[in-house]
Design goal:
The chain has 29 helices and 18 strands. It has about 775 residues and is of the alpha+beta class. Strands 6-7-13-8-12-11 form a 6-stranded mixed sheet, sandwiched between helices. Strands 1-5-2-4-3 form a 5-stranded mixed sheet, sandwiched between helices. Strands 14-18-15-17-16 form a 5-stranded mixed sheet, sandwiched between helices. A hairpin with a 5-residue loop joins strand 6 and strand 7.
Length: about 775
């Protein structure tokens, strides 16, 4: 809190800081151009609001603004807006309220605003009878389609009605648009609907991933559904579903302090009522059909529907695209020439004045009871009564392996098909059941899970088990999902990160189940029959291969009884065993994959001998934290000093489980900086080996790593997953208590020895994805 108070009045914003940050901002701007959904959303806001309106301009601003930016401009902005009379402090968590209030007073009471803050009124928005049609051409294989309208913001009385409309149209697989576009007419692979509300106004967004050649039909369906609501309103069953799910989402959010705090901030600044967020959830139960009908009629008229889309760039226009990119890079160089950091990164001062925190006294959650049913299914239970929720997780014992392995590709398809039809129930009946009970659910290559209100537990367990154990694999649903999966893999081929990670994994695990290509996955899906799904289900989905955890607000004895009655009649099955082998790692493999993007995804990797059972596994996570995982990490300091990249990260023994992991370093970098950034990254690692770490770095890393571990067990679902993982890996439920003790007692001497043992960039594989033709070997833009 003292640091926050100091930042409110004493931030320096000197020219050296600006010189570092401008380079990072340039990278962030480029990163945004390669995120096409984000670009579509930004374009929609830009076209919807006039140039004199704050919502017209993206938060990050425009690249051209940097041509005239100065440290004095930043200071002026900072003094104008970062002031105590414009600030509100929100605290949530394990605190004593009286102590927290006193501490806040001690730290903030002496802060003063220089003069009275003046808040400008937003320009008035007068709706116009006009629409926009925007096409963005990019190096993609699949279309991306979006529609949008201006809607009222968080301060409007229709705010909850907008959210209800959002949920009715796009709320999961029961949403009207998903049901028609994906399930019934099979025109799209996914639908995303969002009432994106800022304080004064917002946009209602509908984003669709159409199947090939189906964009116009998708638009026709959306228009028709909006017209139907304008004429007939919505059904009470839809409203009841939305209200029940809003209750579950509210309690779910309360388990995540960070996300809840952001929601609380928005609620307070919209209403100036700190209790509004706790009352808002009840408003969903009072929204009626006429309100939704009126909202759609006034704000979502299909006659005034604007459209934005990303389409594949025609081959004959690629040369023109490269000329545009070259001009953009010339502007980048002009901007960067104005900023050059000459001073080194300052050593921390204030942080060193704080005492070293006391060792953390924390006990990780343990089961209240572990039961093994007669069929061999292990059931792990914990009563957690901080929210009226219950989470059930039923995972494969080899979930981590199956999620990565080639064997998991078809299993993922089979598991996704479970909800499509089960004995006596159609997909619509299954989905409607979950939604009517306010339950979130999922089935995939890791298993199945749900989160429900505690009042719905027994019925939900019964239906979940029925879907898990008695699927029918209808042939039409099977063919539909095959098209969706194939479309998703094609879209993965359009994503530089997905392509880079897949290429690197294939190098890290040669001739191993983890090595496969998108093309191979597509071929497997194309050749898969419904009978193949039935065989996979019979082979994998049984008590011998799964473990179940139940965490939440229930009586343990009652819950054991329900689980025994429902899952006890499940046939045991045969344990599926995996003993994969891998060919020898080939050092120094280099792959360049060309994609027309603004930035390069750079990956460096090397196979690691470490599995989750290795004694160095936990210390290596501590090493990863110091090197890669925080604002105080070595890689972040490199970013601040050089400005060569915006985002970067890494991990030692990444992906380690029963299988060995690999050491990973990655960054998103502009093509002209790719060679130099890689050199600096390798130098950074060598410097760590030669010079070691400082004691304060280890102290900070301990706190960061332990906080991340504790954050993973704040909600019921995360705890249930942890129990299943620990049991499947035979690590014991006290595993994380041992981790906590090890992290808090690990010495600086041992850490530096560990760094010398494992940090070695020689022989690392390199994968680069992006505009390879613009990467110059001498750190200049290639020609």
């Amino acid at each position: 809190m003292p640091l926050l108070a100091d930042c409110m009045q004493n931030s320096r914003f000197d020219a050296e800081h600006l010189a570092s940050e401008v380079k990072a901002v340039m990278q962030e701007l480029r990163m945004g151009r390669d995120n096409f959904w984000q670009r579509m959303s930004k374009k929609a806001f830009e076209l919807s609001f006039p140039a004199n309106h704050p919502y017209h301009v993206p938060i990050i601003g425009y690249k051209e603004d940097l041509l005239s930016m100065s440290a004095d401009h930043l200071k002026e902005f900072y003094k104008k807006y970062y002031r105590p009379d414009r600030a509100t402090l929100f605290l949530i968590g394990d605190i004593d309220i009286d102590d927290a209030v006193q501490y806040a007073k001690e730290n903030f009471k002496d802060l003063r605003a220089d003069k009275q803050s003046v808040v400008k009124e937003f320009p008035t928005i007068i709706p116009q009878l006009e629409v926009s049609q925007t096409t963005i051409y990019e190096d993609v294989k699949q279309d991306q389609l979006g529609f949008y309208w201006i809607i009222p913001g968080l301060r409007n009385s229709d705010e909850v009605v907008a959210t209800v409309t959002d949920a009715i149209l796009g709320g999961g697989q029961s949403g009207r648009l998903y049901r028609i576009l994906v399930d019934e007419k099979k025109l799209a692979s996914s639908v995303y609907v969002k009432a994106s509300k800022l304080m004064e106004a917002g946009l209602f967004l509908i984003f669709v991933e159409p199947l090939e050649g189906k964009s116009e039909e998708c638009e026709a369906v959306i228009r028709h559904e909006l017209e139907e609501i304008m004429k007939h309103g919505v059904k009470q069953v839809e409203l009841d579903r939305v209200a029940k799910n809003a209750s579950r989402k509210f309690f779910e959010a309360m388990q995540d302090f960070t996300s809840f705090c952001y929601a609380w901030i928005n609620s307070y600044f919209a209403t100036h009522d700190e209790m509004h967020i706790f009352k808002r959830v009840n408003e969903f139960y009072s929204v009626d059909s006429d309100q939704v009908k009126a909202f759609v009629t006034q704000h979502l008229d299909p006659f005034l529907m604007s459209r934005v889309e990303v389409l594949p760039l025609p081959e004959e226009k690629r040369e023109r695209k490269e000329l545009i990119k070259k001009a953009s890079q010339e502007l980048d160089q002009k901007i960067l020439a104005r900023y050059a950091r000459t001073a080194p990164i300052e050593e921390p001062r204030a942080a060193l004045t704080y005492p070293t925190p006391d060792p953390l006294a924390f006990q990780f959650p343990k089961p209240d009871r572990v039961v093994e049913l007669a069929n061999g299914l292990k059931v792990i239970l914990l009563a957690k009564r901080d929210a009226p929720l219950v989470s059930l997780v039923c995972t494969f014992k080899d979930a981590k392996f199956l999620a990565d392995a080639k064997e998991g590709i078809l299993l993922n398809l089979a598991m996704d098909e479970l909800v499509e039809g089960s004995k006596g129930y159609s997909k619509k009946e299954n989905v409607d059941f979950f939604e009517a009970h306010g339950t979130s659910y999922a089935f995939d290559a890791r298993g199945g899970r749900f989160l429900c209100l505690n009042t719905e537990l027994e019925e939900t367990i019964q239906r979940f088990f029925h879907i898990l154990a008695k699927p029918t694999f209808p042939s039409d649903a099977h063919e539909k999902l095959k098209k969706i999966f194939i479309d998703n893999y094609h879209r993965a081929e359009d994503d530089a990160k997905s392509v880079g990670r897949r290429l690197l994994k294939n190098i890290m695990y040669p001739q191993h189940p983890f090595a496969w290509t998108f093309e191979e996955a597509i071929k497997m899906i194309q050749d898969a029959s419904a009978s193949d799904m039935q065989k996979l289900h019979a082979e994998y989905v049984c008590p011998a291969n799964m473990v179940l955890a139940l965490v939440g607000d229930f009586n343990v004895d009652d819950a054991v009884g329900v689980v025994e009655r429902v899952f006890g009649r499940w046939a045991g099955g045969v344990r599926k065993q995996f003993s994969p082998t891998s060919a020898a790692y080939k050092p120094n493999v280099q792959i360049d994959h060309s994609m027309s993007r603004d930035q390069v995804m750079l990956y460096l990797g090397k196979t690691s001998p470490v599995t989750v059972y290795h004694p160095d596994f936990v210390p290596l996570q501590l090493l990863s934290t110091i090197c890669f995982a925080s604002l105080g990490s070595r890689i972040y300091k490199l970013r601040e000093q050089t400005g060569l990249f915006y985002s970067a990260g890494g991990s030692f023994a990444s992906n380690a489980s029963k299988e060995h992991g690999f050491d990973l370093m990655a960054m998103l970098v502009s093509p002209e900086n790719a060679v130099h950034a890689e050199e600096k990254l390798r130098e950074l690692m060598l410097g760590i080996v030669d010079n070691g770490f400082l004691a304060e770095e280890l102290d900070a890393a301990r706190i960061m790593y332990l906080k991340e571990m504790i954050d993973l067990v704040t909600d019921s679902t995360s705890i249930a997953r942890m129990f299943c993982t620990l049991d499947s890996l035979d690590l014991g439920f006290d595993y994380y208590d041992h981790v906590l003790q090890l992290v808090q007692t690990y010495s600086l001497e041992d850490l530096n020895k560990l760094a010398k043992k494992y940090i070695d960039t020689t022989g690392m594989a390199r994968v680069r994805v992006g505009p390879i033709n613009l990467i110059g070997s001498d750190n200049t833009v290639g020609v």
